[in-house]
Design a protein that fits this description.
Bound molecules: nicotinamide-adenine-dinucleotide
Order of helices and strands: EHEHEHEHHEEHEHEEHEEHEEHHH
Strand content: 5-15%
Largest sheet: 7 strands, parallel
Helix content: 40-55%
Radius of gyration: 20 Å
Distance between the termini: 15 Å
């Protein structure tokens, strides 16, 4: 998988205690990478990081898992970040640490910009310093969001060249993080031998172990686990649904190509630098109601009802759609799971958690999800699953 780029590779992941970061750390360790995570503590209680014992995966080195170093510190603290990067000497960096909640960004805009914008500046500055000493990483992937685009709410599927923007502080902080990354790339990282830097834009993702605020699947799992109906705020709203492993396969494949590209003497142009959308297919744009019904079926029964004051009508106006055509054409990446498969995987994970499964059982479950997803990706013809590096 991923052209065997990750075995014994030193990889630095910010935000490793979060939902996406936990899945990414597990996947990297199982690919044999030497991972340094840099992050504050898990942002939710419960959390995937603690529930599945992600921090203990390295104890399984005998079965091929890579080495894991868990650094708990703040991306706003440039000195700590620099020291951790210096210690880790990474070859590949994934930047996921962020304040990722729209609602919290209204309450704490300053914290959101400080974390999401200055956190990115701090990371790129420290990467620049490492590169100047000849110890820079070859590949950096900054994880932003589909919300980085100026959303005219026309239903137009955004392509990478569309104007950036963002209405609320969170969305605009991700647009800013994109602009900062582009400026650093043009100003400091365009010469041969410098780190190759890309940004990855995906929408909201779902999957086992997410307890993020205002997310429908955690709401479903919490309600069904105590036998009460799920209260649904926007049953008619159409959303693009994507499993977390879809976006992570995009990040991993993008950085594998950046890494290989940077290793090629002829890659003066930095073929994979720039911005990339990793969105689901159009068939994954379905209503919240359909997703809740898929979830309750997979759970084995349960009721839902509109929350008091919930909108009843289909609502596509605020649908944010990504066009992933560039990733398909140039990376051979494609979405592999239908919305039904994605929701089923998540529902089974939550059901196991709420039945009281122990961390090792949940970890096994995560690995089974990764294996099933890899099979689906190989069947769909995704280039990363067939080991062909395109660079
Ligand atoms: N989950 C989604 O649906 C989604 C969609 C689009 C983009 N994203 C982006 O993906 C990334 C990961 O999102 P997630 O859902 O896993 O979020 P999460 O809240 O689960 O995890 C965020 C991580 O960042 C860390 N963090 C927060 N502030 C920090 C700071 N000041 N210093 C160091 N670490 C800090 C947290 O400790 C945690 O490890 C974020 O950049 C987010 O904006 C997520």
């Amino acid at each position: 998988m991923f052209g065997d780029v990750y075995a014994h590779r030193r990889v630095f992941v910010t935000g490793h205690t979060g939902f996406k970061g936990s899945w990414l750390t597990l996947w990297l360790l199982d690919l044999g990478a030497e991972v340094t995570g840099y992050s504050l503590g898990p942002p939710t209680e419960p959390s995937l990081f603690e529930a599945a014992g992600i921090g203990r995966v390295e104890a399984e080195r005998a079965r091929g898992a890579g080495r894991f170093t868990d650094v708990r510190a703040d991306v706003r603290d440039r000195r700590s970040l620099g020291q951790a990067l210096e210690m880790a000497g990474p070859e590949i960096v994934f930047h996921l640490a962020a304040q990722p909640l729209v609602r919290r960004s209204y309450a704490e805009p300053h914290l959101t910009y400080e974390t999401n914008v200055m956190g990115t500046v701090n990371l790129l500055e420290e990467v620049r310093a490492l590169a100047a000493s000849g110890r820079g990483p070859r590949a950096v992937v900054n994880v932003t969001s589909d919300k980085c685009y100026e959303n005219a709410e026309t239903g137009h599927a955004h392509v990478e060249g569309d104007p950036l923007g963002g209405f609320d502080p969170y969305s605009s902080s991700k647009g800013c993080s994109e602009l900062v990354t582009a400026a650093y790339r043009r100003s400091f990282f365009s010469a041969p031998g410098m780190p190759r830097v890309a940004t990855a834009r995906a929408g909201n993702v779902l999957g086992g172990g997410d307890w993020g605020q205002d997310r429908i699947l955690p709401d479903c799992a919490r309600a069904l686990s105590v036998g009460v109906p799920v209260e649904v705020r926007n049953p008619g709203a159409v959303r693009p649904w994507q499993h977390v492993l879809e976006s992570l396969s995009g990040y991993l494949w993008l950085s594998a190509n950046l890494w290989r590209g940077a290793a090629e003497a002829g890659d003066k142009a930095g073929a994979f630098d720039g911005a990339w959308n990793f969105g689901p297919g159009a068939e994954c744009n379905v209503t919240v109601r359909e997703v809740v019904e898929l979830f309750t079926n997979e759970w084995g029964g349960g009721q839902w009802r509109p929350a008091p004051g919930a909108a009843q009508q289909p609502n596509e106006a605020d649908l944010l759609v990504l066009d992933a055509g560039k990733a398909e054409r140039e990376l051979g990446w494609r979405a592999a799971w239908s919305v039904a498969e994605a929701v089923a995987a998540a529902a089974h994970w939550y059901a196991e958690f709420y039945r009281g499964a122990r961390p090792d059982a949940l970890l096994t479950h995560c690995r089974a999800d990764i294996a099933a997803y890899c099979d689906a990706a190989a069947r769909s013809g995704a280039a990363w699953a067939s080991s062909e590096v395109q660079a």
